[in-house]
Amino acid sequence: MKRALVCGAGGFIGGHLAKRLKKEGYWIRGVDIKEHEFSYSHVDEFLLLDLRKPENCIKALRISDGPFDEVYQLAADMGGMGFISFAECEVLYNNALINLHMTHYSATMGIPLYFFSSSVCIYRDMKLGEPELSENDAYPANPHNEYGWEKLYSERVALAYSRRYGMKVRIGRFQNCYGPEGTWRAGREKAPAAICRKVAEAENNSTIEVWGDGTAVRSYIYVDDLIEAVLLLIHSGLEGPINIGSPEYFSVKELVNIVAEIAGKRIGIKWIEGPVGVQSRNFSNIRINSLGWRPKVSFKEGIRKTYEWIEEQVRKNRSERFPQ
Ligand code: NAD
């Protein structure tokens, strides 16, 4: 039986990844600074550890009968644009510490295969209609925010340790990921979850506030599709960072309209000032597609599943606050 360590297993993607690996027959140790809010028994063993500390990285990695077969490093202090732009020092400090220590101890403790979750935030801001960027176009580097700079630095750390210690490293640059069991409130949620929550909380024929002017363009990837790509990538011969995303692009205005349609509500939008992030993204998925991977879940279908889950959380939350 293969054994895998999933760092960030108390979070959204790490939680889904651990569940999937268990289904594939792996023995899983999950590690996080907090427990998972929605999934229980998605790992065989769970350790509450702060991975900014070197001694905790060693604890996470130490296991009897040889090293883990695979390490998935998804732990990060992160959130949507609001959080990333407000907490830039925390993002730089905490994530660099986690990644430096996890990479260093994984390599020096003999881990054969290491996955690092990077982000398309390592790319520069783009104008609408610009031709797509491939992985090498990350340089000359000009990420839009400090979260992206840290990811770019940590990619380089992982690649340097791979060269020195022979640890195989696979790096996925994730597009915006969404789905059930993700952060949906309290300031760290990303755009799809934030819009789903606002629409779920809104009355029919009311207005919600949304940052920007609605023209910023993004593509989104449903969590099951992303995990499929991660598993293909880690077991492939593809070296260097690899983009993982969908070729479908939507403006923020389209996102709100899709959510409102799924909710069956007429929703007005009041555009307000806020940290929108980049204007546009357009990057190539040729390398991940070369493994035969394509996203299977359409945006509407994925948003429907996400909306239904968030609507249920909103309802539960209301009945906890106002019991009958
Ligand atoms: P998440 O916040 O749900 O999960 C990250 C987990 O890391 C959290 O559970 C958090 O508690 C944990 N963590 C934070 N600090 C820690 C510490 N000091 N020690 C141990 N654990 C710690 O985020 P997610 O959406 O599941 O993202 C997973 C990874 O994918 C992250 O590295 C993120 O940067 C990357 N990523 C995500 C997206 C996305 O759209 N969700 C896009 C690009 C990249």
Task: Map the helices and strands.
Blueprint: E1 3-7, H1 12-23, E2 27-32, E3 45-48, H2 54-61, E4 70-73, H3 81-86, H4 88-108, E5 113-119, H5 146-165, E6 168-174, E7 176-178, H6 191-201, E8 206-211, E9 217-218, E10 220-222, H7 223-234, E11 241-244, E12 250-251, H8 252-263, E13 267-272, H9 286-289, H10 299-321
Parallel strand pairs: 1-2, 1-4, 2-3, 4-5, 5-6, 6-11, 7-10, 8-13
Antiparallel strand pairs: 9-12
Helix pairs in contact: 2-4, 4-5, 6-8, 6-10, 8-10
Bound molecules: nicotinamide-adenine-dinucleotide (NAD).
Which characteristics define this entry?
single chain, 324 residues, alpha/beta, Rossmann fold, UDP-galactose 4-epimerase, domain 1, 2 domains, seven-stranded parallel β-sheet, two-stranded parallel sheet, 13 strands, globular, binds nicotinamide-adenine-dinucleotide
What would you note in describing this structure?
With 324 residues, the protein is an alpha/beta fold. The chain folds into 2 domains: 3-177 and 221-244, NAD(P)-binding Rossmann-like Domain (Rossmann fold), CATH 3.40.50; 179-219 and 248-281 and 297-318, UDP-galactose 4-epimerase, domain 1 (Alpha-Beta Complex). Helices cover 40% and strands 18% of the residues. It contains 10 helices and 13 strands. The strands form 4 sheets. The chain has a 7-stranded parallel β-sheet, sandwiched between helices. Helix 8 (252-263) crosses helix 10 (299-321). It starts with a strand and ends with a helix. The model has no long low-confidence stretch (mean pLDDT 96). The site of nicotinamide-adenine-dinucleotide (NAD) has 26 residues, from helix 1, helix 4, strand 5 and strand 7.
